[in-house]
Amino acid sequence: MKQTESAVVRWSLIAVALVFIGLFLILPLAAVFTEALRKGWHAYWQALQDPDAWSAIELTLLTALVAVPLNLVFGVAAAWAIAKFEFRGKSFLITLIDLPFSVSPVVAGLVYVLIFGAQGWLGPWLQAHDIKIIFAVPGIILATIFVTFPFIARELVPLMQAQGSDEEQAAIVLGATGWQTFSRVTLPNIKWGLIYGVILCNARAMGEFGAVSVVSGHIRGQTNTMPLQVEILYNEYQSVAAFAVASLLALLALVTLVIKQLVEWQHARQRNTLAAVPPEPSAFLKEAA
After folding, report:
1. pLDDT interval class at 213 (50, 70, 90)
2. Angle at 147 between CA 228 and CA 91, to 5 degrees
3. What's the whole-model pTM score?
4. Burial of 210 from C-beta contacts in 10 A (0-12 / 13-18 / 19+)
5. Using CA atoms, how far apart are residues 160 and 106, in angstroms rounded to an integer?
């Protein structure tokens, strides 16, 4: 389609976009690293070697390591059910998946306190069996799972709906089991969307603050994730240490963005390659034929 806007309009829009990105993205990111290194590399490394900082880093990675695989299983199962089958309550399931997008993370954390806290619905039973969820690692993981579980499902549902179920039905007709149909037909078709959803889910899991802040208790060296550790250090006027931990969190975010960009580039490259040749059935269908 031929562009009708003048060069002045196009360059003005580009300039506005660049100024916005510079002011609200690049400048704050540069400020984080500048403040983190304000007293030199020695102070920077010393801040990261603090036992409480290491505990926060380890807890953040542990939370993501547990939450992302669980959301991966749920996301694939939910997307498969929504995209491939018709059943009563389907619209309700879609609404539940979108719930964390519409509920404040702080409210989600309070809900977990209401259920698992000492004065909550299950609190007396948990105390009687010496099970601690709130103000402990399990509560942090549960809160993180809640705020991140829509990401993978929401990436896969439209993709699987667009692909349809013709190949899966053909595989079943040819004698494939349910697992063979999923692993050799469905999974190869959704792998790029799956990877993209996992990247987004992991980024949110590492950076979650609101829900985790409510259920963590802010116990130093035990229940502080990296975002909570940054808040505590900054409130104590340890700005270099706070920005040092924040810079590490920013580096993890940048690595996530690089991986995301590589995935998108590889996906676009594969899509262009496939567009140049006639479409072929999946590997299982070719073997069965």
Report:
1. very high
2. 170
3. 0.84
4. middle
5. 32
